[in-house]
Specification:
heterodimer; A: ABC transporter involved in vitamin B12 uptake, BtuC; two-stranded antiparallel ribbon; 11 helices; globular; B: about 230 residues
Chain lengths: ~280, ~230
């Protein structure tokens, strides 16, 4: 039974990495920008969640409100820092996002300090029993919300004008401009959605994970590894990558907990040796 | 009356100037042909009109309004539609999705109506509506590129070598569509090297190394000895 417990725990973290990786892939496919402040968006979401809870906002509304605030932060940073760098090389853009990540982390440190925060569980019971398996319902909630978010995102990309325009920009930016789509606007939208999703994830993990302004880099790197593993720019690949990283990390932690943080980069290196474009072959 | 004017245009890629001091006009409801050998700046002309390439000097007027500083997407919304030489289809989207993209800024009902119209012009696209664009044959992809450009009911339609590498039957089909659009009042700029398309044009420009070397009625322009030598021999 212990393996089932670990598996469910792993699925929860896998869902989290999958959503962070989807954020990376969405921005990359719309604009070819690798946004390395994705992890800071997660932490910012968690900290905003804590702040909202402290002013007595019901827990149920906090993920959505956090997503909204972090989404606005995402689009603002894109407008201020990425958009003016029109002629910047991909490397320069990566460096800009690293700088943004440091700014976000320092700002969070100024506002919330270096202590760790936690939100109460979204459920009254800390554990539930299902056929002899004991599990934290928060993990089930995380899995459910991550799955719903990915389904909604997929429908958005396939069925709406903005979604189709985002896909069009990823396939052929010149073709997109010819039909009247602005790649710059689509990049802003991709930043807003990715930051919003990460912000929401931040509040969902706050009851199971101590939120501290220093943890963004670690979360972001795991999401990045998942995105690379699946094939950067490929959303199903990002989901698959998130699940591979999340499950193997949890299993790894069970077997040798000290080394759990090396699982994600190690897997990424192995996959990149065998399949340089990731397991689902994202675009260059 | 000139609907679209390009005045003293200078443009190029980096330091390399492809077009220098070019003047060009297209009349409303007429087909204006642009011919020239490879490297003469025909495609560059199409790109500067569509806004994909910025002018370093000169201006572009659309119905008297200066559109020089508008980006490509804003020009598309003003009714300038381009059928590019390299097609630039959304290869992983279906035929229907590509057509929907053609009318991305129009109301849904109008787009659906326009899609029905282009299906009447190109029935094969209706049969392939769910097929992924990248899996279509070259001719079908060309039809789709033209159909996508027609969805927004363009005021100005620029076609960059639409008959290149496709069958004679399809060329005839495309020419029929162009004549239909001309009757509807669409301003058409046709960039071509194919002799068969020249008879449908109302006016012609011949270009060489970024400059206009002759202009006038197509038969007159194309019968000039130096033009014949340049393009057909």
């Amino acid at each position: 039974m212990i393996f089932v417990d670990i598996f469910i725990h792993g699925l929860g973290w896998a869902s989290i990495y999958a959503v962070i990786a989807v954020g990376f892939s969405l921005i990359f496919s719309a604009s070819k920008v690798i946004n390395l402040c994705q992890g800071e968006f997660v932490i910012l979401g968690g900290l905003i969640g804590v702040a909202l809870y402290s002013i007595k906002i019901p827990l149920l509304f906090i993920p959505l409100l956090s997503a909204l605030v972090v989404g606005i932060v995402g689009i603002t940073l894109e407008r201020i820092a990425i958009s003016p760098a029109k002629k910047a090389s991909p490397t320069a853009l990566i460096i800009i996002t690293i700088a943004l990540s440091i700014i976000l982390k320092s700002t969070a440190n100024l506002i919330w300090g270096s202590r760790s925060y936690k939100l109460p569980s979204f459920f009254r019971k800390d554990f539930i029993n299902l056929t002899n398996i004991t599990m934290d319902p928060q993990y089930l909630l995380i899995m459910g919300i991550c799955a719903i978010s990915i389904i909604i995102l997929t429908l958005f990309l396939r069925r709406t004008r903005w979604g189709r325009s985002l896909r069009a920009c990823s396939m052929d930016p010149i073709g997109a401009r010819i039909v009247g789509v602005s790649p710059e606007k689509m990049r802003s939208i991709s930043f807003c959605i990715s930051a919003g999703l990460s912000g929401m994830i931040g509040t969902l993990i706050a009851p199971i994970f101590f939120i501290n302004s220093d943890y963004g880099l670690n979360l972001g790197l795991k999401g990045f590894c998942a995105a690379i593993l699946g094939g950067m720019g490929n959303i199903p690949g990002a989901i698959a990558g998130g699940f591979i990283i999340g499950l193997s990390e949890t299993m790894g932690a069970f077997l040798f907990s000290t080394y759990k943080d090396i699982v994600a980069p190690l897997l990424m290196i192995i996959v990149l040796y065998m399949r340089p474009r990731g397991i689902m072959g994202g675009r260059d | 009356m000139s609907y679209l004017k390009v005045l003293r245009a200078k443009a190029g890629y980096g330091r390399k100037k492809v077009i220098e001091g070019l003047n060009f006009q297209a009349e409303k409801g007429k087909i204006t042909l642009v011919v020239g050998p490879n490297g003469s700046g025909k495609s560059t002309l199409a790109m500067i009109i569509a806004g994909l390439l910025r002018l370093s000097e000169g201006s572009i007027l659309l119905n008297g309004e200066d559109i020089t500083h508008l980006v490509a997407e804003e020009r598309a919304r003003r009714g300038i539609s381009l059928v590019p030489e390299r097609r630039h289809l959304f290869s992983e989207m279906s035929v229907k999705e590509n057509l929907l993209m053609g009318g991305i800024y129009l109301p849904t009902l109008q787009v659906e109506k326009e899609i029905k119209k282009v299906y009447r012009l190109f029935p094969v696209l209706k049969m392939r509506t769910h097929q992924i664009a990248g899996t279509l044959s070259g001719g079908e992809q060309q039809m789709l590129t033209i159909a996508r450009a027609l969805i927004c009911n363009p005021e100005v339609l620029i076609l960059d070598e639409p008959c290149r590498g496709i069958s004679y039957k399809l060329i005839e089909k495309i020419l029929r569509v162009l004549l239909y659009l001309k009757e509807k009042g669409t301003t058409i700029i046709l960039i071509e090297q194919n002799a068969e398309v020249m008879e449908i044009a109302d006016y012609a420009y011949a270009m060489q190394v970024g400059r206009v070397i002759a202009r006038g009625k197509p038969q007159k322009v194309l019968s000039q000895k130096n033009i014949k030598t340049l393009f057909f021999e």
